[in-house]
Amino acid sequence: MNLDDLEPIKTKTKVKDLEPMGLEELNEYIETLALEIERARIEISRKEKHRQGLDGLFKA
């Protein structure tokens, strides 16, 4: 088994065309992105805490 098979498939995010969007749409888009960023930060924090717990377990 190749270890690369265990890695999640990474896809590039497509860049959204902002030109046709109005001001209200752009502001809503920014709010959506801000919520998604916060969700990602929460997940990072959760994974860091999990890793710290495992590090403590194996260093003992």
TrEMBL record:
Entries under InterPro entries matching the protein: DUF1192
Keyword annotations: Coiled coil
Protein name: DUF1192 domain-containing protein
Coiled coil: 23-50
UniProt cross-references to Pfam families, sorted A to Z: DUF1192
Domain of life: Bacteria
